Amino acid sequence: MDENLLQIRGLEKWFGTLKVFEGVDLDVKAGEVVSIIGASGSGKTTLLRCVNLLETFQAGTILLDGNPVGYHEANSKRKRFSERVIARQRLLTGMVFQQFNLFPHMTALCNVSLGLIKVKKLSKAEAEKEASRWLERVGLSDKIHSRPSQLSGGQQQRVAIARAVAMNPKILLFDEPTSALDPELVGEVLNVIKQLAADGATMVIVTHEMRFAYEVSDKVVFMDKGKIASMGTPAEIFEERKSDRLKEFLSTFNS
Ligand SMILES: Nc1ncnc2c1ncn2[C@@H]1O[C@H](COP(=O)(O)OP(=O)(O)OP(=O)(O)O)[C@@H](O)[C@H]1O
Ligand SMILES: [Mg+2]
Question: Whose CA is closest to atom 30 on ligand 1?
Fold first, then answer.
């Protein structure tokens, strides 16, 4: 396997006339945990959405497990893969959103087993067994028949994490997974993510939880105005604070 599970080179993206990325390069190795920090509007969500092909991008390449995602070259022209191929490529990534995005009318068990049945083509019994196993792993074995409205925000987010990992993606992408939660529920979600990291999952995590990023990350990326302004180990980013922009950004956090 390629050393880099995810390799981004020269990524450029526009929203209409707004240029969001100025050529982003990022490498994530298998088993690595990379946190992305940065001010509002710096492009963190858009970067994850490009990797998951929820957004188009106009230049640059994203390789996942050695293969280009989204676009390929044909007759020296850049072409978007067919939606069928894109749907398959999207399965390489598992996305966890700030707002959980669970189906409100379905139980936790149904939310987690749905993709296993519809996409992975498991039988209902196999899918439910697998879903129960993951719900147990995130500490929700007593809530498998509850609907999202009957669960706390932290519990809902843990269902969403179980749903993402159950699909066995190559890489997990978290977009501020705890920022919609009451402070007392943040810890339980971060603990689940830490456990996945300890089990060797490859993850990219957009977060404003600086202490968590410090503890869990192999590498921290500081985005500023559509560029990766600094990148390094947690110690390099949080202790050395090499640039003025980084110092200024981090000074707005207590930890
Ligand atoms: N769908 C869209 N259409 C037009 N512009 C967009 C769209 N989504 C994001 N943008 C713009 O792209 C830039 C990057 O936005 P993005 O959401 O990636 O930032 P972010 O770093 O995730 O911010 P936050 O910390 O607030 O979540 C911003 O200038 C934003 O206004
Ligand atoms: Mg965002």
Answer: 41
